[in-house]
Amino acid sequence: MTTAIYPGSFDPITNGHIDVLNRAARLFDKVIIAVLTNPSKKGFLDYETKLNLIRESVKDISNVEVDSFNGLIVEYAKKKNAQVLVRGLRAVTDFEYEMQMAQMNKNLSPEMETLFLVSNTENTFLSSSIVKEVSMLGGDISKLVPESVNNYFNNLNREI
Amino acid sequence: MTTAIYPGSFDPITNGHIDVLNRAARLFDKVIIAVLTNPSKKGFLDYETKLNLIRESVKDISNVEVDSFNGLIVEYAKKKNAQVLVRGLRAVTDFEYEMQMAQMNKNLSPEMETLFLVSNTENTFLSSSIVKEVSMLGGDISKLVPESVNNYFNNLNREI
Amino acid sequence: MTTAIYPGSFDPITNGHIDVLNRAARLFDKVIIAVLTNPSKKGFLDYETKLNLIRESVKDISNVEVDSFNGLIVEYAKKKNAQVLVRGLRAVTDFEYEMQMAQMNKNLSPEMETLFLVSNTENTFLSSSIVKEVSMLGGDISKLVPESVNNYFNNLNREI
Amino acid sequence: MTTAIYPGSFDPITNGHIDVLNRAARLFDKVIIAVLTNPSKKGFLDYETKLNLIRESVKDISNVEVDSFNGLIVEYAKKKNAQVLVRGLRAVTDFEYEMQMAQMNKNLSPEMETLFLVSNTENTFLSSSIVKEVSMLGGDISKLVPESVNNYFNNLNREI
Amino acid sequence: MTTAIYPGSFDPITNGHIDVLNRAARLFDKVIIAVLTNPSKKGFLDYETKLNLIRESVKDISNVEVDSFNGLIVEYAKKKNAQVLVRGLRAVTDFEYEMQMAQMNKNLSPEMETLFLVSNTENTFLSSSIVKEVSMLGGDISKLVPESVNNYFNNLNREI
Amino acid sequence: MTTAIYPGSFDPITNGHIDVLNRAARLFDKVIIAVLTNPSKKGFLDYETKLNLIRESVKDISNVEVDSFNGLIVEYAKKKNAQVLVRGLRAVTDFEYEMQMAQMNKNLSPEMETLFLVSNTENTFLSSSIVKEVSMLGGDISKLVPESVNNYFNNLNREI
Questions:
Q1: Cross-chain CB nearest to D27 (options A23, A99, A113)
Q2: Does residue F128 contact residue F106 with C-beta atoms inside 8 Å?
Q3: In CATH, what class is F3-159?
Q4: Which residues contact B90 (CB under 8 A, 6 or more apart)?
Q5: SS (H, E, C) E143-158
Q6: Predicted structure pTM score
Q7: Which residue has the higher pLDDT, E66 or F38?
Q8: ipTM of the prediction
Q9: Is residue F40 annotated as a catalytic residue, yes or no?
Q10: Where are the domains of chain D?
C-alpha cells in the first residue's frame, strides 16, 4: 500500500489544492492532507478552522485523511508509513522553493520521494494569499475556493 | 475617451514609475495614478506624503490625475470609468506576481484590461525598496527619484 | 487616432493570438495584425496561407487589418503611422525575449511603445509550435485554434 | 496495478535519467521507459542504439520495460494501460516546457496524470546534450552516464 | 594587491558560504568576510555570535579577515581599499536580486566590481533560512554547516 | 600571476562583450579572449573575421591577448596556465545555461574557477544574434558594437 502526504499551510484551502488532492487520491491508496501547525508560523486562520474547512471540502473523497503535524515533515511521514510527499507546482518562484525543500527532505530522509503535480490551467494563478486579499477587500471568491471556505469568509466579512 | 489607471504603493515614487507614467500618458486620454491606502499594508511613507511627492513630480504632465483608493482595484476602476490598468514590468519575479494579479482582476471584472509597459533599461534594476535602503544608509538617490522625493529623503536623513 | 500593430510569425494563428487581438481591438482605433515574411525565417506554412487563415479568423472584428511585412518592425510601424506594438506574454522565457526586443525597438525608435497583453489562463500554455506538433501526430486541435486553421490542418493530415 | 510511462528522447540516457527511473520504479508497479521515434526529430543516436544502451543500463531494475513509440504520448499510454507520465525536472526552462506539455496532454486526455520527479543534486546540471558535447571534445563522461553509454561514446571517439 | 569583500548576513554561515569563500581566497590576495550589522535588519543570531561562528569556521584560511560593517557596502569597501565584491549564486530569484544590487552598487561606485561565484552542486539548494528551520524542528544539520555552527545550534536546541 | 580566459563565439563581438572584457582586464594580470572554433558550431562570421574584428576592438587594452581554441575549454585553459574563466550574465536563460557549463567545467577540472561579471544596464538586452538581425534588416547598430564591427556589417549590407 502506498501512502502519500500532501503537506501545507492551507490558509485557506483553495480549488487549486482540491484539484491536486483529487489527482493524488486517484494515484495512491491513501492520501493524508496534513496541516502544518508550527507555532512560529502563524497564519490568518487558526489551525482548528483550517482543519474544519478542509474536512468539509474533502468529505466526498474516500481515501483522504485530514491531519495536522508539527516538526519535520519527513519524521511525520515515517510515523505515518508514507513513502511519498505530494506538492503542487504553479510558477517559477514556487518551483525554486519546492526544489530546495525537496532536496533538503531527500537529504534528511533519502528513501522519501517528492512528487510534483500540476493543477488545471484555471488554477495556475490561484493562491491562498490572493484569495484572502480579494475576500478582505469585498471581492467574490466563490469560484476560487470550496463552498465551506467561501461561507466562512463571507461570515467573517459580515462580522467586520 | 480611454481612461487608464496606474495603481501602486509608490513608497516612494521613482524615476521608473515616472517613465511608465509618461508612456501611458502618451497613449491614453487620461491616466489616474492611484495610491493604494489599505490600512493593512502600511508603507514607510504615510499616504498623504506619497500623494504630495507624486503631485509635485507629475505636475508637468497635463492628462494625469493623482488619487488614492482602497478596496478592490477593479471596483475603483469602474467608479472612475477606466477600462485599462497599467503596470510596469522589470524582472521575472515581478512578471509572475503581475500575471497572477492580472488574471485575478480579469476574473473579477472580465472587461478590464491589464497592460504591461517596459521602462527604460537604466530603470530595469530600480525599485522603491532599494531607493529607501540606499537613502537610509546615506547613499545618493538623486539620479533614481524625482527631485521632490530626493529632497524629502535628504531632509529625513538630516533630522535623524 | 491610435493605431497598434500586432506583429508575429503566426505559424499558425492560435486561439491565444485571437484573444490578444480582440483585447487590442477594444483598446485602439485600429489594429494591424502583421505577418513577418523575412525570407531567412521560413515557417511551416507559407505566408499566403498564413494570411488567408488569419483573414478568415478575424473577419468579424471590424477594426482589424491583416497585412504582412519584412524588414524592421519599427520602420514598418512608422510607414503605417502606428504608435504602438502589441505583444502577448505567457511564460518567463517569452518575457525575457520580449523584453530584449522591446528594448531594441525603443533603441531604434524611441517614440514607439511596446504594450504587453496577457491572454486568458486557458491559453497560458498554448503555442503555435505545440499546435503543429499535436496536429502532425494526429491529435485534435479544434479547441486550440480558429475553425479555419483546424480545417486546414485536418486537410493536410488527410493528404499525407 | 499502476503503470507509469517515462517518455523521452534519451539521446543518450544519462545518470540523471537512471536516477528518475529508479525513483519511479519504487513508486509504481511497472514503469515503461519509452523512446520517442518520430522521424521529424532525428537525434544524434539512431533509435536502435538508444534502445540497446537503455536496455543494458536498466537490466537490474525488475519492473522496468524498455520500448519505443511514435505519435501522441497520450495515445501510446492508453494502449499500454498506463495512468501516469513521469518526467524529471531540473531548471526553470525545463519547468516551463514541461508545464506546457503537461497541460496539453491533460487537454488531450484528461484522465492522464503527469508527475514530476526531482533528480539528485549532482544531476541538476546534467543533460544529454552536454554529455554529447563533452564527449565529442574528448572529455571524460564516465561519471555522467551508465557504463554502456560511456563505452559506446569511447568507441565512437576512437573510430573518428 | 587585490582585496575582495564577501558581504552578507551569515545567519548562520553555511557550507555553501565556506565554499564560496575558499574559492575567493584562491583568487585574491585578501578576502574580507563582512557581516552586515544594520540595526533595522535583525537576524536570528546576534552579530557577535555570527562573528564568532565565522571566525572558528575560517581559521584555517590564511588570507581571510573577519569583520562587520554597517552603512553602504561600497563605502565600507572604499575604506578597506577593496576593489571587488564577491557574491554566491544559486537560484533564479537570487540572480535577480543580486543583479539589482550589483547595478545599484555600480551606480554608487562605478569602479567597484561585483563578481559572482557558483558553489558546488551539493550546495545549490542550501540556505541559511533552511538550515535554521531544519535545526529548530530537530533535524540534523551537521552536513550543511561548519562544525562550530552545528555545535551552537545543538546547544540551543538542548536549552529549549 | 593570475590569467583569466574569456571564451565565447563572439559572432560578432558587441559592446556588452567589450564591457565585460574591460572589467576583467582591471581585475586580472592577463585576460585571453578566446574564440571557439569547433567546426560543428558554424557561426555567421568565419573565425578569421571574428578574430580581426576583436583585435581591432581591443587594441587599446594592454593586458588582453586575442586567441582561438577548439576542444574543451578546461584543457585550453590548462595549456595557457589560466586559473579563471570569465563569463557575462544578462538574463535568466543565460544564467541557467551558464550554471550548467560552470558545473560541468568544475567536474572536468575542479581547480578551475568560473567568475560571472555583470555588464552595464544599457547592455542588459544586447546579444550577438539581435545585432545580426537588426543589421541584416537595415537597422543602425553603431551604438551596439565596436566601430570595426559596425563598419564590417555596413560593408556587408552594401554588397548585398
A1: A113
A2: no
A3: alpha beta
A4: B16, B119, B123, B124, B125, B126, B127
A5: CCCCHHHHHHHHHHHH
A6: 0.92
A7: E66
A8: 0.90
A9: no
A10: 3-159
